[in-house]
Amino acid sequence: MAYFFIRGEGIYLPTERLQKLQREVAGSAVEYARSFLDEKKGAAIDKKIAEHLESIAIDNPQEFQNEWLSIRLYGEQAVDNTFWIIADWIEHTGRGSLVDFRSAEQKISQSHSGEDIQNPYGNYFGINLNAKEGILKPSKTLAKIHIDAESVDKIMGQFPNFKIYTSSFDIQFGEYVVILPSVHSS
Predict the structure, then answer these.
(1) HSE (CB half, 13 Å, CA atoms) of 139?
(2) Cα dist from 107 to 3, 60, 91, 111, 176, whole Å
(3) What is the pLDDT of residues 69-96, one digit of tens each?
(4) Whole-angstrom Cα distance, residue 98 to residue 128?
(5) Where would I find the H helices in the chain?
(6) pLDDT given for residue 110 in this prediction
(7) Residue from 52, 79, 68 nearest 155 by CA
(8) Is residue 29 within 8 Å of residue 23, measured between CB atoms?
(9) Can you say how many angstroms the Cα of residue 109 is from the centroid of all Cα atoms in its chain?
(10) Residues 42, 47, 52: CA angle, nearest 5 degrees
């Protein structure tokens, strides 16, 4: 999980920032590595991160506002976080699922090379957007979106409301998902 809610405000932690905080609160590289294998240790590290963010919100509200709430990812950092921010939005809202378009050979190759740790579905994946109909009713797929993370120029906003800008269209995530023609210049 790379998102937290502190004082009612959504915070998305880009991969590099999340890993830095995880290492800091784990106390050692060994404990940090163990947290991947032990769900309880991982949850404890997430709790410490939330406490750290809460203390920043209390001690320095301006820093909290400027440095932690806004999502401003550009270039390679935007490409690297596209999958994760969408996965976190889906986890938070329950309004979709991810689709892996990789072939069996690509999955095996990326697994052996370690690429699937950073980008589990590769840079080209899909999103099935579902209607939220309640716990007992099955969700209906309303739309399918294909994402090419390599075409992402930037990601801006505040979790869970953010916009992904690509060279050909923009996607606004929030209560609804809206696809817009791209009108920005990269």
Answers:
(1) 14
(2) 27, 44, 23, 6, 31
(3) 999 999 999 999 999 999 999 999 988 8
(4) 6
(5) 15-26, 29-34, 39-59, 61-63, 75-93, 104-113, 115-118
(6) 63
(7) 79
(8) yes
(9) 24
(10) 125
Residue 54 has pLDDT above 70, yes or no: yes
Instruction: Convert the pLDDT of each residue in 144-180 to its tens digit.
Output: 899 999 999 999 999 999 999 998 999 999 988 999 9
- Amino acid letter at 45? I
Please give the pLDDT value at position 61: 92
Dmax (CA) for the chain in angstroms is 51
d(CA 15, CA 59) in angstroms, rounded, equals 25
Q: What is the mean pLDDT of the chain?
A: 84
